[in-house]
Amino acid sequence: MATQLTAPARAGLGATLRAKRRILASAFVGTTIEWYDFYLYGTASALVFNKQFFPDASPLVGILASFATYAVGFVARPLGGVIAGHLGDRIGRKALLVWSLLTMGVASTLIGVLPNYAAIGILAVAGLVLLRLIQGLSAGAEWGGSALLSVEHAPAGQRGFFGSFTQVGSAAGMLLATGAYALAQAFLTADQFQAFGWRIPFLFSGALVLVGLWIRLGVTDAEEFTAVQEQDRVVARPVVRVLREHPRGILVTVGLRLVQPAIYTLMTVYILGYLKDRREDTASGLTAILIVSAIGLFSGPFWGWLSDRIGRKRIAVGAAIGVAVLIWPFFWFLDHGNLAFLPLVLLVGMNILHDAIYGPQAAWFAEQFPTELRYSGVSFGYQVGTVLSAAITPLVAASLLQAGGGQPWLVCGWFVFLAILTTAAALAAKDPARGRAARTALKEAS
Hints:
The protein is an all-alpha fold.
């Protein structure tokens, strides 16, 4: 006989569903805004910052200096992750997420009004570096809190899917950032874009932050974490404790980060400068990035959903091997291929290989650590791995390209090296979603 829900039960179920939707919206919208701001800088570093802030340098040195300030934000991320991890494991995830969003929005808006080198000289460079540091601290705090807020609210057997909404925010942020610059370039002349057009997307972030704050202020921490507080299991120094008691989890999460953010940086930042230098083309790159970012809104959740069913490990290993094999024809295509097919090439690199690793990552990282140490563990591993890959990849790639006499094969070797390390980390990681565990969790959820 079918069970009928009483009116209070139906109301309670509706409230629960609304709360879950708000959690997913918070993870998606908040992370979208954070990464919109963060990626604006990456795009600007490839297109305009060398002229705005390093005008006296040669083209190559200007690009290197521009990418160096881009890397500063990544270097600050581990510190942001450590601070946020310590506080987030003690006072909760929500409070840190509100502050990280507000800080990122203020820093990005100030970049939009920062005078260039021609106006105030070296102070412009100092201001740019300082604001990039603030962006990095904010980004370091953001991911761990957003990932845990979505994963810890997830029903059994759906952590990969729920966590993917945090990951999708990255694709949406890139979509907005790239779209903002594409629109600016479409409606402004090259001189107008260099003079003031590049500032408009930074100023727009202020309005977006207000939307994100409204959503985030309406969420609560998950019962999984509040139980830690109620049972007096809060750790005094969670960062120290997680490093001492869970070194394997730290090494695994660092390793899982190595090839994925490097591929992202290659295909969304480095590629713009590469095509501009080698083929005098930036429009093709921006258009292709826009397309694959839109597809990423769906491919990320797909890989998260699939990882709940077949496990995270086999997906990540297959994707890392794919990177090691396909990086060689990728660079050949950039030099010699028909750029009309660039969206298809980036679809393989981003929506298949990159997203297969990135989509399930929030859940997989959370599964490596206990609740009371989880914010510290996932933030530290995620941010350190990012610094060791994405932060230095543009500089390493530019240096290896020069060392190779303009040929990209040494650059390809760098990505193969990172893919090998990620494969080893994936094989060593815990995978609770695999096999029988996944089927049991899914049965409980149904």
